[in-house]
């Protein structure tokens, strides 16, 4: 475990924050925040136009890190609605001007960090530490609703609205509508409508709210990270805000001239989600992305479990064969571990292979013919929470190549992959192809698998319950990639039959 001081810097569209953490004593030594950054109209993440303010603040943070003699520090940035290409331009400007290398977090990664933080404070401070209920994360551009069951992450949904986006809509409607809040409420309801069939079947009525700073400042007590909001008081404040002026909100809610516009949209979102879920207990938390980064830096297991749950949910939604999935995963992990001295990939790639084993067959939902291509398409359209864009791309491409197609030089998708991940995609796909072939009949005829390296042959010794004619045919058809990638010849050897 790391010791000493750790510096975490987070760039969000509206602010930069530095936190210095004493890892030995698990406490925050110092926290510094920038002034408000201007949020864009068309694109919330207005980093390119704010680059001077961003770099000046980072240089100030660098001096603070030097003052505390912090050698171990990391800079993260929330992509929000910014594309990766623009992110690379901004990252290069930051590096040239400050020497900081930024790691961009996509919206699925930021959600995962927020949920890790909320899960941590719920375990520590809620009367029922095994949270069963919803977490509403209100963002600037989009929001999310997540569900926890007995303290574990179960599922989440993205909601196409955020407080900054809604404030822009409010501004536009004020020019044409007498009561824009009524129209906003209808707009919010339209964004939540697709969730109604899933949510109405649930009887859970506890909700934690994250991302509502005005509520957090109002209700969270000193030394707390989560506290209860009284229903009556919330609705009283909500009704009052419907007709409150900006000047009144600035005076009474400790907000600046930019975030004053986000107060009413925040209350509108909370109110509509409360009605939809028929919430009985409502809590507010000030847990943040930085808190999540601190938690997952010390213990990444929550993120790992979340990613696996998200993959299982996707597999279930598209009707993947659960028995086949378990078999392939088990064998693929055996192969990965046995080949570690050869492929020299780390534990993170092991996780990506495990996830690919869970979802590689979801394309059968569209059409068994060419299902591997359909799997890749579904995965591209449904990135998994907690994973980077590159990680999601690797899983989609490994799934694409787990069956008939191979990652060859003239294969269009393979050609367009970043050169840094081309080999890992081939290495993982080669393992998955072999593991998948051993259950080609989907009947789990193989009881046990033992691996043994004999010269240049990788003997896969199996004990079986039935003949393996189909599996042997599939094995021979799919193992050519394995030989090309690893320089080993897989041999299927039947050592016993029950």
Automatic annotation (TrEMBL):
Q: Where is the Ppx/GppA phosphatase C-terminal domain?
A: 310-468
Q: Which InterPro entries match?
A: ATPase_NBD (IPR043129), GppA/Ppx_hydrolase (IPR050273), Ppx_GppA_C (IPR048950)
Q: Which Pfam families match?
A: Ppx-GppA_III
Give the superkingdom in one word: Bacteria
UniProt record similarity statement: Belongs to the GppA/Ppx family.
Q: What is this protein called?
A: Exopolyphosphatase
Q: Which organism is it from?
A: Limosilactobacillus coleohominis
């Amino acid at each position: 475990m790391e010791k000493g001081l750790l510096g975490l810097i987070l760039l969000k569209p509206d602010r930069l924050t530095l936190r210095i953490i004493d890892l030995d004593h698990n406490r925050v030594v110092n926290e510094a925040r920038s002034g408000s950054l201007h949020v864009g109209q068309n694109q919330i993440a207005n980093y390119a136009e704010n680059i001077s303010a961003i770099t000046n603040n980072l240089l100030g943070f660098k001096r603070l890190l030097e003052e505390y003699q912090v050698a171990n520090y990391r800079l993260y940035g929330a992509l929000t609605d910014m594309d990766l290409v623009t992110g690379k331009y901004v990252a290069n400007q930051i590096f040239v001007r400050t020497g900081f290398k930024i790691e961009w977090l996509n919206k699925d990664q930021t959600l995962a960090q927020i949920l890790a933080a909320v899960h941590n404070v719920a375990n520590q401070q809620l009367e029922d530490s095994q949270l069963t209920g919803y977490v509403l994360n209100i963002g600037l551009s989009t929001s999310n609703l997540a569900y926890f069951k007995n303290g574990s992450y179960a599922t989440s949904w993205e909601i196409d609205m955020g407080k900054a986006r809604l404030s822009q809509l409010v501004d536009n409607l004020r020019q044409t509508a007498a009561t824009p809040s009524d129209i906003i409420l209808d707009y919010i309801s339209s964004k939540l409508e697709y969730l109604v069939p899933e949510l109405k079947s649930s009887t859970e009525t506890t909700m934690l709210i994250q991302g509502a700073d005005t509520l957090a400042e109002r209700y969270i007590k000193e030394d707390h990270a989560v506290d209860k909001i009284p229903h009556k008081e919330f609705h009283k404040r909500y009704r009052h805000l419907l007709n409150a002026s900006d000047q009144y909100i600035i005076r009474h809610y400790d907000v600046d001239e930019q975030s004053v516009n986000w107060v009413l949209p925040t209350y509108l979102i909370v109110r509509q989600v409360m009605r939809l879920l028929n919430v009985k207990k409502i809590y507010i938390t000030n847990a943040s992305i930085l808190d999540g980064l601190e938690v997952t830096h010390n213990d990444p297991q929550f993120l790992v479990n979340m990613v696996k749950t998200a993959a299982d949910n996707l597999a279930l939604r598209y009707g993947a064969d659960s028995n086949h999935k378990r078999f392939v995963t088990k064998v693929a992990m055996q192969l990965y571990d046995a080949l570690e001295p050869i492929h020299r990939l780390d534990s993170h790639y092991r996780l990506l292979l495990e996830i690919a084993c869970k979802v590689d067959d979801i394309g059968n939902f569209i059409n068994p013919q060419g299902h591997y291509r359909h799997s890749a398409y579904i995965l591209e359209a449904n990135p998994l929470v907690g994973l980077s864009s590159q990680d999601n791309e690797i899983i989609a491409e490994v799934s694409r190549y787990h069956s008939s197609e191979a990652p060859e030089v003239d294969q269009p998708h393979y050609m367009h992959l970043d050169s840094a991940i081309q080999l890992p995609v081939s290495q993982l796909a080669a393992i998955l192809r072999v593991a998948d072939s051993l259950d080609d009949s989907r009947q789990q005829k193989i009881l046990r698998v033992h691996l043994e390296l004999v010269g240049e042959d990788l003997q896969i010794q199996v004990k079986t319950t039935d003949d393996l004619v189909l599996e042997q045919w599939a094995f021979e058809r799919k193992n050519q990639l394995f030989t090309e990638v690893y320089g080993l010849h897989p041999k299927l050897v039947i050592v016993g039959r029950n």
